[in-house]
Design a protein that fits this description.
This protein is mostly beta strands. The protein is built from no helices and 33 strands.
């Protein structure tokens, strides 16, 4: 089986109140195990769970970790994190813990494999979960609460941690906080995480930093701004960030108030950067320079409504977009120069996270 083919889709399964004030009625059933081959999507299994809106995976242990984006989980305040494994051709939920913060929206595995980091959006905190040598949740949790606000009267009245982004070169964890217009930094060693405020950095007021991705060499960080509809690039020198460039994701005649950005990803070779617009419902392609500067190459309709999340195949040949509000996944081919061409579309209930995950191929039964 092609190494590109195994991927998972996380969905909203119940109503959820967003920071925008909108209530979305989730239609999904949980976490979906899928394959992608010859441009075609096939669903192999669904594992029921509450609002698995984001997840990460470990190829070495064959485990996957999903957040449960809720405001109450198993009778306690906040959301959850659920550990999943693939055994005997089926997905199994092995363990689940509360995050201690509401609406966890992002989870990442530390580069050393020792812990998970979770961003709790609504309550504005970061939760750290140690893992044992086999990649199992150990039952512990450390939590860091953000404080403050910024200028937007609705979206920035308090902290809203939105992602956890690792800089393996520097032993740092960066957390874009949409509510503070601040990217907070933490240092990690083993499974111990501590605040590192000397590496915090700000973005322009009202930008609403959402998520980021490092270039493969770790020297450039691209940071998408949910409220500002821009992508910023930074040079990373020993963990300290210097702004290099700012690129608009919208055309000049767009209704800026009706758009919020969502996701961004680099091609495996780091040459092309893609970013998604919700409201304008489009995907942008930027050519990236060695110096970290960005040049808009293409802006194309996403094929649906509200492109919440998208993923690029490990070979860099295709891009799959989860259109949250139109219940579809759109497939695009990527040519050698980074240009996108829509090649297919599939019905899918409230898709909010798509990830290709190596290490699970052998466990799929046909």
């Amino acid at each position: 089986m092609d190494q590109d083919t195994v991927f998972f889709v996380g969905t909203y399964t119940e109503p959820i109140l967003f920071g925008t004030g909108e209530v979305l009625d989730g239609k999904g059933q949980g976490l979906y195990l899928c394959t992608f081959s010859d441009g075609q999507i096939a669903v192999h299994q669904t594992l029921p769970m509450r609002n698995p809106s984001f997840f990460c995976a470990c190829a070495e242990t064959g485990k996957l970790y999903a957040v449960n984006e809720t405001k109450e989980y198993r009778g306690a305040f906040g959301g959850g994190v659920t550990q999943v494994s693939l055994r005997d051709g089926r997905l199994h939920a092995d363990a689940t813990l509360g995050t201690g913060g509401t609406d966890p929206c992002h989870i990442a595995l530390a580069p050393n494999g020792r812990f998970l980091s979770v961003a709790n959006f609504a309550s504005g905190s970061v939760s750290i979960f140690p893992l044992d040598a086999a990649g199992n949740l150990s039952g512990g949790r450390t939590q860091f609460q953000h404080e403050g606000h910024s200028v937007h009267p609705v979206r920035q009245r308090g902290p809203h941690a939105h992602a956890t982004v690792f800089s393996a070169r520097d032993g740092l964890l960066f957390v874009p906080d949409l509510g503070l217009d601040l990217v907070k930094a933490y240092r990690y060693e083993g499974d111990t995480v501590t605040p590192a405020p000397e590496y915090d950095f700000r973005v322009p007021a009202g930008s609403g930093p959402r998520s980021g991705v490092f270039r493969p060499d770790g020297r450039i960080l691209y940071l998408i701004q949910e409220l500002g509809s821009r992508v910023l690039s930074f040079r990373c020198d020993g963990g300290r960030m210097t702004l290099i460039d700012s690129a608009d994701t919208l055309p000049e005649d767009a209704d800026r108030a009706a758009n919020i950005c969502s996701d961004l990803h680099l091609t495996p070779d780091g040459r092309y950067l893609y970013a998604s617009n919700r409201g304008h419902d489009s995907i942008c392609c930027f050519r990236t320079g060695e110096d970290g500067r960005m040049a808009l190459q293409q802006r194309i309709p996403c094929g649906g409504r509200t492109p919440r999340n998208f993923a690029i195949t490990p070979s860099g040949s295709h891009l799959l977009v989860g259109n949250q509000d139109s219940d579809t996944i759109t497939v695009f081919s990527i040519d050698r120069d980074g240009w996108l061409t829509q090649t297919g579309q599939y019905p899918f209930p409230t898709p909010v996270c798509i990830r290709f995950c190596r290490g699970f191929e052998a466990g799929i039964r046909h």
